[in-house]
Amino acid sequence: MFLLPALVLLGALVVYPIVFSVYRSLFDASGSGFVGLGNYGEMFSDEGIRTALRNNVVWVVVAPTVSTALGLVFAVLTERIRWGTAFKLVVFMPMAISMLAAGIIFRLVYDQAPERGVANAVWVSVHDTFSDPAPFPGAKPRPRSELRPSGGGGFTTRSAVRAGARVELPLVAARQDDLRGARPAGAAARRPGVVSGTVWLDFTRGGGGRPGVIDGNEKALAGLRVEAVRGGAVVASAMTAANGTFTLPGGAADGARLRLPGANFAAAYHGVEWLGPALVTPAIIGSYVWMWAGFAMVLIAAGLAGVPRELLEAARVDGAGEWQVFRRITVPLLAPVLVVVLVTLMINVLKIFDLVYIIAPGSSLRSANVLALQLFQSSFGTDVDEGLGSAIAVFLLLLVLPVMYVNLRRLRKERRR
């Protein structure tokens, strides 16, 4: 009599949905045609569902392991410092945020525009510290000129040059902001024994001028690297002067082609495409670790508080270093707690849905797909098929059952002790 209300509630909320899902998975999308295990066969033949399964494996292996490891490190390192409690509070604080709010936060964090995305703001700052910006991003040769594209964003002359020759390399499409303070272009002097030339913006504001000829106040493109290339190797190089002129030694450059490498024209660095198909899953796992490392830290810190300090002190007295104490004493004594945290996070990860649904943009959603999200899309998306959705739900339950079984065995062993 006392158990009856609990059994009724358990049956209505747990047993009945499981039984009905298994039953519904044996029928087609309309629910009227019996297909047996057909939905399960379709589930494993669908490329999108196979991608979701692969991503789930990555999630189960990486996310709980990293979260538990960080929680262990935080719990151990903050044990002896005065502000350890404040640090733990800050690390645990993301647990107070819902998955929806965390997803919105990290959608902004991973924005590719550095002025909006924190991750790319940091990354671009580091990149720009060690990399020189291109002098004239976006500039390119005038159509039907001597220069032609040569790969990597660079341009190479169509024919080889000879010692004593003068080569004119006109460009267009340079931004006016990059030309502030630029001097008028000057014609290079023809000199025996060297290859000389001029690189300039072959464009006269207001119209006029002759293509391929330095006219009036057309601006010089200073600071561009010019290379002499023979057989795929750079044999000589020079930088353009303030008036756009350059000289190369004729002995080395004779018979070579002149190249303006792509580094002269590379577009401004805009950061990493965190939410592109290649990095979207690791990026979302990072947001999950940000939320759940605090949960792991609190549980491990509670277990650490129960570790006998006499054992740790005895090991130190016997000459053990801190790393040996941590590896041979602390971690083995915390093993039951670590298993609890790891198993709990594995069960949680198998059901992950919110973060993936919110953070992944539409263009990368297929690459970031997981089983719980695929279940939602199959059951309530554009191509509604509740039979297939129920099959995915049953399969997800079967994946969770071994983890739950391990957890139950561990609890029984703890009770026997």
CATH H-level superfamily title of the largest domain: MetI-like
CATH topology grouping of the largest domain: MetI-like fold
Give the strand line-up of the largest sheet.
2-3-9-6-7
Number of helices in the DSSP assignment = 13
Structural class: alpha+beta
CATH 2nd-level architecture of the largest domain: Orthogonal Bundle
Tell how many strands the DSSP assignment holds: 9
Profile the largest sheet.
Answer: 5 strands, antiparallel
Give the averaged pLDDT, no decimals.
89
Shape: elongated
Description:
50% of the residues lie in helices and 11% in strands. It is α+β, with helices and mostly antiparallel strands. The chain has a 5-stranded antiparallel β-sheet with strand order 2-3-9-6-7, with no helix packed on it. The chain has a 4-stranded mixed β-sheet with strand order 1-4-5-8. The two termini are 31 Å apart. The mean pLDDT is 89. It folds into 3 domains: 1-37, no CATH class; 45-121 and 274-393, MetI-like (MetI-like fold), CATH 1.10.3720.10; 140-264, no CATH class.
